[in-house]
Amino acid sequence: MMERKFAIAIDGPAASGKSTAAKGVSRILDFLYIDTGAMYRAFTLFMLEKGKDPKSEEDALALLPDFRMKEDKDGHVYLDGRDVTDRIRERDVSSLVSYACAYKAVREKLVDIQREMAEGESVVMDGRDIGTVVLPDADLKIFQIASVEARAKRRYLENRQKGIAGTLEEIEKEIEKRDYIDSHRENSPLTKAKDAIVLDTSDMTIQEEIDTIVSLFKKKVGDLWKDTEQSL
Ligand code: DC
User: Is the CB of 101 within 6 Å of ligand 1?
Assistant: First the structure.
């Protein structure tokens, strides 16, 4: 009998702590972690490197067939074989990513890649449209939210650790702007699935977030998970 595979979808606005929580959950459950925002970031970087304007849909569509990216098990992202994991977090990419990811053809191609990556695996996937579009049958759907202040502070500390410049105020403005673009454009990808559980993480530590998601998952799948654990 084929081993039962599981999927956890974690959606939410920019810098709500999704990727850190998703990574932690994937380690505990030994699932594959897939960071979908990283793919839209990689496409934005690809456009910039080709000297194109991410605000131009025409340019985006022209480049799309040449876009080759890979994401490994630990969330490292490669563009044409080069490791761009840190580069795609820099501010030029962050401030332009909302444009390139709004084009239908770009979304379709990346959603295809995301589904392919998830096939035959137990996964934790984070993004905006995972519970609604990419994995509508996920076993657990989390819609993670946090106040702008809490999100800006997290991203600021994360950036400082990575040596990425920017003040707390600048990051707060950037997050507000990105939230606005993400939620006001036509067909915004950020929508809560009907069956998603809302998790407000403003006052939670990362460990609390991870523990909460793992226990929600175990509760949700119940005996199915216990059977799998015993057969490990
Ligand atoms: O999660 P993040 O900040 O790395 O995401 C970067 C951008 O990609 C963000 O502006 C929204 C977009 N995105 C998307 O449209 N759909 C996803 N599934 C994931 C991210």
Answer: yes
C-alpha span between 154 and 160 (Å, rounded) = 10
Residue-wise pLDDT for 60-72, tens only, equals: 999 999 999 998 8
Give the predicted TM-score (pTM) of the model.
Answer: 0.88
Calculate the dihedral angle through the C-alpha atoms of 210, 216, 221, 223, rounding to the nearest 10 degrees: 90
Per the CB < 8 A criterion, the answer to whether 51 and 86 are in contact is: no
> Is the beta carbon of 129 within 6 A of some atom in ligand 1?
yes
Q: Closest residue (by CA) to atom 4 of ligand 1?
A: 37
Instruction: List the structure tokens of 111.
Output: 């959603």
CB-based contact 229:9 (threshold 8 Å): no
Q: How far is the CA of 178 from the centre of ligand 1 (A)?
A: 10
Q: Is the pLDDT of residue 229 over 70?
A: no
DSSP 130: I
Distance from residue 24's CA to the centre of ligand 1 (Å): 19
Give CA separation, 26 vs 122, 176, 219, in Å. 9, 29, 16
| Closest listed residue to residue 42, CA positions, set 100, 102, 2 | 100
Max mean pLDDT range (54-63, 69-78, 170-179): 54-63
Question: How many whole angstroms from 79 Cα to the centroid of ligand 1?
Answer: 17
Going through 108-200 in order, the beta strands assigned E by DSSP cover 123-127, 140-145, 197-200
